[in-house]
Amino acid sequence: MKKERPDSPCIAVCSTALGDDICRGCGRSAVEVSSWVTMSDEQKDQVWERLEELWRQGGKVAPWLR
Question: Average of pLDDT values for 23-35?
Answer without folding.
Answer: 93
